[in-house]
User: Fold these one by one.
Assistant:
Number 1:
Amino acid sequence: MQALHGKVALVTGASAPKGIGRAIAQRLAQDGAHVVVTDISGAIEGGMTTRAGLLDALAQDIITRGGSALALTLDVTSARDIAAVMEQVLARFGRLDILVNNAGSLAGSDNFLSTNAAQWTSSFEVNLLGPMMLSQAVIPEMRKLGGGRIINIGSTGSLGAEAGFGAYTAMKHGLVGLTKTLAAEFGPDGILCNTVCPGFIATDMHEAANTRLSQKQGMSVADIKQQRYANVALRDAGLPQDVANAVAFLAGPEAQYVTGINLPVTGGVPFGI
């Protein structure tokens, strides 16, 4: 029997074509879970492709491969959206076992003195408040089942600091605090909560950061990569599937005594200051 047979998982921020959320959804479906893939509405930045279209294609791909999936629009900063998604998930599947808080934002990732309160507020709402509200929504349902898994996607920015990513780093540190709080408070209910902390992963967001740094520093993207990966033991970025494998472990039966941890998926990158 598949490790997650009969389980229902909700993954946020799953639309990006080369994103961690997409890889997580595919891996959980492969392990037998019914997967609810979500993201905000609108077009992908710089293109005409809509996130809704990408989500529908992802769900259809999972179904074509023999899995089970449902695509829903979800703004993690909207209490109304969260309530609507929970209603649809419970109507369709009757339960929710796994929450993966993957949606993220790089708002406020720039020289500290050039950032503003609006950028930091946006970062807070997506990177920390959203996971908090979703966790509040799913925990009562997990309690009814006698347990569940909440997996927050942090970063090396959850463990250290890199210049130029102030708001993102601050919120990802906060996400670790949220993880540990949930692990401590809801462990008696059988609800396990952990953070997966990716390093340099070749996603759409990571490539956008490389492009921004190349423009800011007047260097080629190739030189930026060489510079950024110089201290990575494996000297390269990882793949979204590497993160998905870590999430699958924490969501599965082999992690039944693991809670409150930060699991680095970094290729051996130092955590900064």
Number 2:
Amino acid sequence: MSLRGASVPSEGAAAASLGQLPRGQLGCRFLGVGGDGAALGPTAVIEAGSRPLLQIDCPPGALNAHIDAYGATPRNLYVTHTHLDHIGGMEELFHGVIVDAENDPASRIRVFAHANIVPSLQQRLVANQYIRAEGGINFWDAFQLVPVSDGFWLEDHWFPVFEARHMQPHFCYGVALPGVFVYTGDTRPIPEVLARHANDDETVFHDCGLRANPAHTGFVDLLNEYPADLLNRIVCYHYGSETEAVRLEEHGFRVARAGQRLVIPASANRAAA
């Protein structure tokens, strides 16, 4: 099976690929790819000309990874769901930005999250947790929480969001940029969703490990559920280990790796817009 979609550099070209992207070129840098054996949970940064535009999810350790990659804290964060391997790094983020946020409210980090998960986000992050011993500050003082339904605007880009299939209904929401990419979040196969959001040659970053389970996709699921054209555009993440990554590649799949930038080609329709 020949896979195309996002351009993933070879190991020898990887370092060069982390230079400046052409102006206006979109990229995706995975800071972590997730899975039980991964050093950092699943988190990726959508870039515009090598500038971080939107970080997706914030597992423990994501703040340091973002600073190492870009020299600064993230300015915009999208949260797919509230499992701690996706939001557990927000306490670190709070402590990393709260001093600046107290002095300058404009420095608060925007957090985009589907309205259905906001109560869970509040319960897991705020209720009886992460309250500074000195008092005088609220968790959300460090952030600007932006509840979303169908999607959100960011720097003149419209990012639709959609429900994934993870654990239970209304629990996990992926994000897309039409004509450019789809990021599924944790999910089982969602062919009916991708038929709508990945129908214009988008690169699809898809939860996929070597074996399926009730909450996550396995590569056999991809083969069974998706047509060849879509398989050719999938890049797998949220696998368990480098051994799994190699096995997925042996089965013909393109795989994201931590620290790697993937150049995202826009569809012909979007490029002409």
